[in-house]
Design brief:
Radius of gyration: 22 Å
Number of strands: 0
Helix content: 55-70%
Largest sheet: none
Shape: rod-shaped
Distance between the termini: 15 Å
Strand content: under 5%
Order of helices and strands: HHH
């Protein structure tokens, strides 16, 4: 798998995770209560949105990207033979070639 494919896949997973986390957070009863979906907007608190939304977005973006990166790293280690760390002829690492 090429490095561009791994990078593109990680970005796509990160975007999907961020959007998914925000959608799930938005639909919870706790968030709806803070946004004023109670009787006559009782309990409306936009401070909860301003403090929670950035953390939800970041967690939704970072966690899937880290899992994707660890998976790609483990698959790369498993597929690479142990003796090919350095090329015999040029002394250059295969990772940088």
């Amino acid at each position: 798998m090429s490095r561009d494919a791994v990078t593109g896949g990680g970005c796509a997973v990160s975007l999907a995770g961020a959007v998914g986390a925000v959608v799930v957070w938005w639909q919870t009863s706790r968030t709806q209560r803070h946004l004023g979906n109670e009787f006559e907007n009782n309990g409306q608190d936009f401070g909860a949105v301003l403090t929670e939304l950035p953390f939800v977005f970041l967690a939704g973006a970072v966690v899937p990207a880290v899992v994707w990166g660890v998976g790609a790293w483990l698959l790369g280690r498993r597929r690479r033979p142990e003796s090919s760390e350095f090329s015999e002829s040029s002394g250059v690492s295969d990772l940088h070639a």
